[in-house]
Design goal:
Elements lengths: L6 H10 L13 H14 L3 E3 L3 E2 L6 E2 L16 E5 L23 H9 L5 H13 L10 H8 L3 H12 L11 H13 L8 H7 L1 H5 L3 H8 L3 H14 L4 H9 L15 E5 L8 E6 L6 E3 L1 H9 L2 H38 L1 H5 L10 H8 L3 H8 L3 E3 L5 E3 L8 H12 L7 H10 L6 H10 L5 H17 L1
The structure holds a DNA duplex.
DNA sequence: CTATGGCACGGATT
DNA sequence: AATCCGTGCCATAG
């Protein structure tokens, strides 16, 4: 099976070759857009950067024509406008270089800080890529070979960097499978602690029965006394996790005080005006260079004085530059309109919890904005939104049909007095006006990482045992 | 017999 | 056209 084609190689190509068709900027993340625009800017002298105008009252930088949307909110509804990301160094105009905000460290930065010093610049960019590919559990879903091919780097380099990542905290990060994550953790623990002998073979070969608590089965397979297996299981449960990424998120990604500058990584930031819980939502859409990249008018007039091959050459450049400018503006207008709709329709979800998400589809938004469905798909893909709670979520979360129901399932089980079976949960959902099949409840429960009722029983028993022991 | 997970189908969504 | 999602059916474990 071929891996899905990715955007960056395609972009490198178009940036250096002829830009004849409209470009797909919409489908790119903010970082990719920035990379692309910088390369176009460098390769086309007919393009120039201009400075944004400033709102006379609030001094905010304005990237689109018209009055300041914050000081002059046009009408009812959310306030949506373009802004440059508060990144460092990126802004060639020298404006808007905000100081590094104090913020809880993100996992990606935490990892880079650990391995950065021992890597060459080239390896560091490999590390950047690999870390960005880690899934929500901190595991690496992509093979080294795929990454190497994508990065155009030797396999050995990729593997070296990956191994460096795997030696980082939290232990097991960057492993390619839950099993590998567990093994890495065991090795690290073994340096300072005694590890029950049964632990390694259980991880390697009997993980499945372990999950079901089938200690007898394992004991027989390994020819070990059952208590030893149980001790090993307890060790695994207490000390190891197949999802190393979650341990970091656990203490770092908790809802934090909303810090307006926290949002390096999102392309859309939702917030409320201070002291205005009832006020309109304010949405900043981060867009590198937008509104400031334009065809240099001097070159435009200059071209008219040229002739022959030289003139043709420059006309081509100007045409290309105009196209870039147009595509860029077009894609940004679409994202802004999307942002406005999200803020309007999902206000409760943005300010509140998953449960308040209202089901919505890309197709419906497309109809409302009178654009093609694929346009909305691209506008949503590879982008993230920062919510006032401090959470950063992929935009696709806004279109998750089952999110709010899963949230209800979670709370039903959290508040249960005795372990409820899936059928019972399904019944309770029906009472609340959410008819879902029993099978579906099972899937939602699994998605939330909740064990089946029978196992929640033993989990309870173990928890209370541990509690009374301590 | 009950609870659950695997598989596969069909319709919706991208 | 490809993928995702909810669901029903069936096998299996307890």
């Amino acid at each position: 099976m071929l891996p899905a084609q990715r955007a960056i190689p395609r972009i490198r190509q178009t940036a250096t070759a002829h830009l004849t068709q409209t470009m797909n900027l919409l489908g790119l993340s903010r970082a990719e857009q920035g990379e692309f625009l910088n390369s176009v800017l460098a390769s086309n002298p007919a393009l120039e950067l201009t400075k944004p105008t400033r709102c006379p009252t609030c001094r905010r930088a304005l990237y689109l024509p018209g009055p300041c949307p914050v000081c002059h909110p046009a009408r009812e509804g959310p306030i949506v406008f373009l802004a440059t990301p508060p990144g460092r160094g990126r802004d060639e105009s020298g404006e808007e270089n905000l100081p590094e905000p104090a913020q809880p460290e993100r996992l990606s930065d935490f990892l880079l800080r650990q391995i950065g010093p021992e890597l060459s610049p080239e390896e560091r960019s490999v590390a950047n890529y690999l870390i960005a590919r880690l899934d929500e559990n901190g595991l690496m879903p992509e093979s080294s070979a795929e990454a190497a091919r994508y990065l155009h780097q030797p396999l050995a380099v990729v593997e070296k960097v990956l191994h460096a990542i795997q030696r980082c905290d939290p232990p097991g990060i960057g492993a390619t499978s839950p099993i590998e994550a567990l093994l890495i953790q065991v090795e690290q623990l073994a340096e300072t602690h005694d590890v029950p002998q049964a632990v390694r073979p259980i991880i390697l070969e009997h993980l499945e029965p372990l999950a079901h608590g089938e200690f007898g089965l394992i004991a027989r397979a390994l020819s070990l006394p059952r208590p030893e297996v149980e001790a090993a299981a307890k060790f695994i449960r207490l000390n190891l996790t197949p999802y190393p990424g979650r341990t970091f998120l656990g203490h770092d990604h908790q809802p934090t005080a909303p810090d307006p500058e926290l949002y390096h990584e999102a392309e859309m930031v939702f917030r409320l005006a201070p002291n205005a819980a009832e006020g309109p939502l304010i949405v900043e859409v981060y867009a590198p260079l937008v509104g400031r990249l334009r065809v240099n008018p001097e070159i435009r007039t200059l071209v008219k004085t040229l002739s022959g091959a030289e003139r043709e050459n420059w006309e081509g450049k100007v045409e290309e530059a105009a196209l870039v400018e147009k595509c860029l503006r077009q894609s940004q207008v679409t994202v802004l309109r999307l942002a406005a709709i999200l803020a309007e329709e999902q206000r409760a979800f943005i300010l509140g919890t998953d449960r308040e998400l209202i089901p919505m589809t890309r197709a419906r938004i497309a109809a409302r904005l009178e654009v093609h469905e694929s346009t909305i798909s691209r506008a949503v893909s590879r982008k993230r939104a920062a919510l006032p709670s401090g959470r950063i979520v992929p935009l696709s979360k806004f279109f998750d049909r089952s999110l709010s129901v899963r949230d209800v399932v979670r709370s039903i089980i959290a508040e249960e007095n005795r372990p409820l079976t899936d059928t019972e949960v399904a019944g309770m959902l029906k009472e609340r006006g959410i008819p879902v099949a029993r099978r579906t409840v099972a899937k939602y429960r699994a998605m939330e990482g909740i064990l089946p009722a029978a196992l929640r029983r033993t989990q309870r028993a173990q928890r209370s045992a541990a509690l009374s022991a301590s």
